[in-house]
Design a protein that fits this description.
Pfam families (chain B): SoxD
Protein name (chain A): Sarcosine oxidase subunit gamma
Helix content of chain B: 10-25%
Largest interface: A-B, 12 and 15 residues
Protein name (chain B): Sarcosine oxidase subunit delta
Organism (chain B): Sedimentitalea nanhaiensis
Strand content of chain A: 35-45%
Oligomer: heterodimer
Strand content of chain B: 25-35%
Strand order of the largest sheet of chain B: 3-4-5-6
Radius of gyration of chain B: 14 Å
CATH topology of chain A: Gyrase A, domain 2
Number of domains of chain B: 1
Distance between the termini of chain B: 29 Å
GO molecular function, one term (chain B): sarcosine oxidase activity
CATH superfamily of chain B: Folate-binding superfamily
CATH topology of chain B: Folate-binding fold
Helix content of chain A: 10-25%
Number of strands of chain B: 6
Chain lengths: 203, 95
């Protein structure tokens, strides 16, 4: 989460800034919108890092990642959720890894330490906004917004898709009727507006 | 038009962007004696077949892989789709 100074207090000769984190939508708490059969929630509490195997290092990277995650990296278009991580396939020899921000603020550094020169690791936390859609009406909203056939997506799968003109990762969680949309953070309000408009229209 | 992605299966062509002739993979050696001539041909000379054509497509709103698509320019029938990196490596490229 980004931080802005909201108050500066003079204490003797030192100026102390009290920092309050803001979510991608600009609030101090995560936005939640409830509909009949659908809950759309902003999920700011996740750290993200991307991982790309280096050329010729793919097998070494896979075994190092297995040791770090306690589970093999997911196959094409699949996800894995080895607690406390979420791992999403995003392209050939490329994955996105999420973890709770409170415990894994330095996620990219932790992954880089584990994978060494077998992979290129990039901090992604503040580049993305995550919205979760939960409830049996989620398909009715997503089918109005993107190409992905959400009803036929297997639980534990992921696809990149265009959602209201924005390239997003769409993840179907292992639980029933639970999708995550990861999109560009700078367009958080546009994505939220699209989700709200489609939900209002469909429900 | 549907492009049958080698990894992800059939995908709508609106997810892809088109670059051009797959011969763009064969970038000349910039240190060759006749590099200027080679780059002239590489940049400006294209076949324009009415029929089977090998071309580069980018899966922009997908997994971001480059593909070599063999498409009939008169019917849009697609007869082969390969990962461009496999094609490039088969031609001796290191990446």
């Amino acid at each position: 989460m980004s931080s802005v100074p909201i108050l500066s207090t003079l204490k003797e000769t030192v100026c102390v800034l009290d920092l309050t984190p803001l979510t991608a939508l600009g609030g101090t708490t995560a936005r939640v919108d409830s509909f009949d059969g659908l809950r759309i929630s902003e999920c700011p509490d996740w750290a993200l890092a991307s991982v790309a195997a280096r050329l010729g290092q793919e097998p070494a990277m896979a075994s190092a990642a297995r040791a770090f995650l306690g589970m093999a990296l997911p196959d094409v278009a699949r996800t894995a959720e080895p607690d406390p991580f979420g791992v999403f396939w995003i392209g050939p020899d490329q994955w996105m890894i999420e973890a709770p921000h409170d415990t894994h603020e330095s996620l990219a550094a932790q992954i880089k330490a584990a994978l060494g020169d077998t992979a290129s690791v990039t901090e992604q936390t503040d580049g993305w906004v995550r919205f979760d859609l939960q409830g049996e009406r989620c398909h009715d909203v997503l089918e109005r917004l993107c190409n992905a056939d959400t009803r036929s997506m297997a639980p534990g799968s992921v696809t990149r898709t265009r959602l209201e003109h924005l390239g997003c990762l769409l993840i179907r969680r292992p639980q029933d009727d639970h999708f995550s949309v990861l999109g560009p953070r700078s367009s958080a309000r546009s994505i939220h507006h699209a989700l709200m408009t489609a939900a209002t229209s469909a429900i | 038009m549907i492009i049958n992605h080698p990894l992800l299966g059939p995908r709508d062509s609106q997810e892809f962007t088109y670059l051009g002739d797959a011969s763009l993979i064969d970038r000349p050696d910039w240190q060759a004696e006749n590099a200027v001539d080679q780059f002239h041909d590489y940049l400006y000379l294209r076949d324009n077949p009415a029929g089977s054509h090998r071309e580069l497509w980018f899966h922009e709103t997908g997994d971001r892989s480059w593909l070599v698509v063999t498409r009939d320019t008169t019917t849009h029938e697609i007869t082969a789709v390969e990962l461009a990196r496999d094609v490039a490596r088969a031609r001796g490229r290191s990446k």
